[in-house]
Amino acid sequence: MNSHELHREGRRNVEAELLRRGAASVTSRGTRKIHLYATNSNHSRTVELQVKTKRKGNWHTRTDEAKPTDTPMDLEDARNFWVFVDLGGAPRYWIVPDEWIRHDIHEAHQQYLNQHGGHRAQNDASNHHAINESRLEKWQNNWGILGIF
Questions:
Q1: What are the residues facing 93 on neighbouring strands?
Q2: β-pairing, 35-39 with 92-97?
Q3: Which residues contact 77 (CB under 8 A, 6 or more apart)?
C-alpha cells in the first residue's frame, strides 16, 4: 500500500467511524489536502477534520503547521480537529483540537531546536516534523469532543 492508498484508507475508516457513532453526514473537500466535514443530526454543528494516517512509526507533518498560542483553548467553540489514525492493526484513533496540535507542534519543534543549538541536527532547510503517539495519549478515542453525536 503506497502513501496515497494509506491516507485514503485512513479517511474511509474515519468516515465509517463517524457515521457509526451517529454523525448525520460526512463529506470531503479538497484535492491536495482533503478535509472531512461531519455534521450532527439537526445540522446545527459541523466540524472540519484533517486526517493523518500511519501504519507504523510516527505521524508526519510540517513545521509550518505549527502555531504558538498564549490564549486558553475553548473546546466548546472548537470546530477544527485533526484525527490521527493508526492502521498498524485494528484501527485506533486520536481526536485532537486543531489549536492544541498546532501549539504542540510549535512547542516540540522549539524544544528540538534548543537541543541542537537553535538549528536542525542535519538540515536547516527541512520542514519535516514527526508526531509520536505518546504526545497524543490524552486524546485517544475522544470522539465526544467533536460535539456532533
A1: 85
A2: unpaired
A3: none
Cell of 57: 512509526
The third-level CATH classification (topology) of the domain covering 3-146 is: Trna Endonuclease; Chain: A, domain 1 (3.40.1350)
* Cβ-contact 84, 141 below 8 angstroms: no
Q: Return the domain boundaries, the chain.
A: 3-146
41-49 contact pairs (CB < 8 A, 24+): 45/79, 45/147, 45/148, 46/79, 46/148, 47/78, 47/79, 47/80, 47/81, 47/146, 47/147, 47/148, 48/79, 48/80, 48/81, 49/14, 49/80, 49/81, 49/82, 49/83
- Per-residue pLDDT tens for 78-125? 999 999 999 999 999 999 999 999 999 999 887 877 778 877 778 877
Burial pattern 8-38, b for ≥16 Cβ within 10 A else e, equals ebbbebbbebbeeeebbebeeeeeeeeebeb
The residue type at 122: Q
